[in-house]
Write a structure and sequence with these properties.
Number of domains: 1
Number of strands: 11
Bound molecules: zinc ion
Radius of gyration: 18 Å
CATH superfamily: Vaccinia Virus protein VP39
Helix content: 25-40%
Largest sheet: 7 strands, mixed
Distance between the termini: 26 Å
CATH topology: Rossmann fold
CATH architecture: 3-Layer(aba) Sandwich
Shape: globular
Number of helices: 9
Order of helices and strands: EEEHHHEHEHEEHEHEHEHE
């Protein structure tokens, strides 16, 4: 996807789809990619562990505010609001619509899209947010429709991230922004786990890569290359920690060794 080389090595053999690496650009991806049906299955249930932080049948706003999920949503909004504090916002892969809901509360005209009909139904009925189920490319979004597009741990699940970013580049305004957060497989923790796996010192070798629904695993280097190919420039990037400890957050921001990375992108011609 990133380069013309077809020279790859298999990093992790797996039942469903192994993890391959391009010998030229270092991009990590699954092969074979799941079929449309398999993919639908992976993305059409409410079994994600982070959905279990609260009771879906009886959603309680006060309890939700104590979850790590809520903390992360607020952290994301804080980043977004550094660039724009109002306007049309699209959350791609919105899941239960929690980010859309919090975004709308703080002044955005926010909407979301997700592959999961179940999640979208829940979001509409419980949070009364503007969310639709379906594929991004099938929506009739028009050029320059959005001020902000966000993808929180979504791009690595998409069958063609380059096509997706190119499409999104077209539907943001010329002064719009795209926010992408995803796992960082060049994180120090992953490097240690890779080392231990390589020398058979880890109980479940390569267990940290057994997420078949992650079709791609990005490092800062491979993601930067992807963004450039999609016609986007990087305005800012950092790595994050799961914890809300300010000292840890500071260290992860300065050293960029964290497990998650956040990129703020804009169209190249600005
Ligand atoms: Zn390559």
């Amino acid at each position: 996807m990133l380069c013309k080389t077809s020279d790859t090595v298999c990093i992790v053999k797996q039942e469903i789809n192994g993890l391959m690496q391009c010998s030229n650009c270092g991009l990590l991806y699954r092969y074979p990619l799941p079929t449309r049906q398999d993919y639908q299955k992976l993305s059409n249930d409410l079994d994600y562990p982070w959905y279990k932080e609260f009771d879906l049948a009886q959603f309680d706003d006060i309890r939700f505010k104590k979850t790590n999920q809520y903390f992360q949503i607020q952290r994301r909004l804080k980043h977004v609001r550094k660039y724009k504090s109002s306007g049309n916002l699209l959350d791609v892969g919105c899941g239960l619509g929690l980010f859309v809901s919090e975004g709308a509360k703080c002044g955005f005209s926010a909407m979301g899209i997700d592959m999961s009909h179940k999640a979208v139904k829940w979001a509409r009925e419980t949070l009364h947010v503007d969310v639709i189920a379906g594929k991004l490319e099938e929506m009739n979004f028009h050029a320059g429709q959005f001020d902000i597009v966000t993808l929180w741990h979504v791009l690595e699940h998409m069958p063609d991230p380059l096509e997706t970013l190119r499409y999104l580049c077209g539907i943001i305004k010329s002064n719009g922004y795209i926010f992408v957060e995803m796992p960082n497989v060049a994180a120090i923790e992953i490097k240690i786990k890779n080392f231990l796996s390589r020398y058979h010192l880890k109980r479940n070798p390569w267990g940290h890569f057994t997420m078949p629904e992650h079709l791609y695993e990005f490092t800062p280097a491979t993601f930067k290359r992807l963004a450039a190919l999609a016609g986007l420039k990087i305005l800012y990037w950092t790595t994050l920690t799961r914890s809300d400890n300010p000292l840890l957050a500071f260290i992860y921001d300065k050293t960029r060794i964290g497990n998650k990375m956040l990129f703020v992108l804009a169209r190249k011609e600005i």
